[in-house]
């Protein structure tokens, strides 16, 4: 190791106040990555000067908000080796009171359910003490229930409306009842006495599209790197809703530099969330290669890549493989990471390349997902949907 590298290491160890002294010794300025390391370390080891997290114990403190803590945890995991991450997070617990906030059952019960805080907890789930595991699970369950209330009904309605509802069938089926057509065609049979419509004829959708050969396959390929906290939570809940629908075949895949198939955990959103290993690098190409084995009927496959697109693997191969999926007839959608309460976070260069292939690539807020699903399953123009969404977002 040369002298300049040694100087930079000591500069990172001793912090910003040593910058002038090392500069006089011939030390070079820190690189962009080293500067990020310096900021991450200063938040813990030199808090007063860096405006770090402050005290987050019982006294409340005046440190930054939970989204900042979540982002800091993601930075630490991506910038340092696994062994160092363990040491730094341990120091963060002890120096900044994070453990009291996150893992004390009494405090956690009083905390308002918050997606950012939940993503922070998931990042640190390996450090949760046994006595706090149940309270953490209850806390995560509260957030799952809130998001379910927000999304489940609309997603089910969107999928039901999209799956081959062009034709009707004479075969009665409660699950296939076309409520809209039945009500509108029977309005003339409204009973004042009963206060309701009494249908004389019922209309049922043709359910042949839900046979195995004609089912849509929805694949969610979810980045689990450190910056993906909020997106992972929303994605896992949407995944479970879709997996519970018999009209779809749903696959749930998580990746960093490794690939994990979480489909079997889709019965329970909380179990699915705890199956994610938030943190680490990103190898999108490897995950795409794994997902391709589930594409049996490209024209009936909807593929979601949910990622910040900060690819650490083979970028050219990733772009090529995504293009091959699209060319084969798969409906490909790239949903960018959402962080800090809904702000997009992504690699702009890679997003531009994905969009340049005609693949919709944008950060879609959760409330718009049902509309996106319905349009995708109906084969409608998703780039037009993207334009409409971005236009409405600018007005807000």
Structure, described:
By secondary structure, the chain is an alpha/beta fold. It contains 18 helices and 11 strands. The chain has 3 domains: 3-138, no CATH class; 149-161 and 209-380, 3-Layer(aba) Sandwich (Rossmann fold); 168-205, no CATH class. The protein has helices spanning 3-14, 19-24, 32-45, 47-50, 66-79, 82-96, 98-103, 105-110, 115-123, 133-162, 179-185, 229-243, 269-275, 284-291, 315-327, 348-356, 369-377, 382-395, and strands at residues 168-169, 190-191, 196-197, 204-205, 216-223, 248-255, 259-261, 301-307, 331-339, 343-345, 361-362. The longest helix has 30 residues, at 133-162. The model is unreliable at 54-67 (pLDDT under 50).
Can you summarize this structure?
The chain is α/β, with parallel strands linked by helices. Helices cover 50% and strands 12% of the residues. Strand 2 and strand 3 form a beta hairpin.
What layout of secondary structure does this protein have?
Layout: H1 3-14, H2 19-24, H3 32-45, H4 47-50, H5 66-79, H6 82-96, H7 98-103, H8 105-110, H9 115-123, H10 133-162, E1 168-169, H11 179-185, E2 190-191, E3 196-197, E4 204-205, E5 216-223, H12 229-243, E6 248-255, E7 259-261, H13 269-275, H14 284-291, E8 301-307, H15 315-327, E9 331-339, E10 343-345, H16 348-356, E11 361-362, H17 369-377, H18 382-395
Parallel strand pairs: 5-6, 5-8, 8-9, 9-11
Antiparallel strand pairs: 1-4, 2-3, 6-7, 9-10
Helix pairs in contact: 3-5, 5-9, 9-12, 10-12, 10-17, 14-15
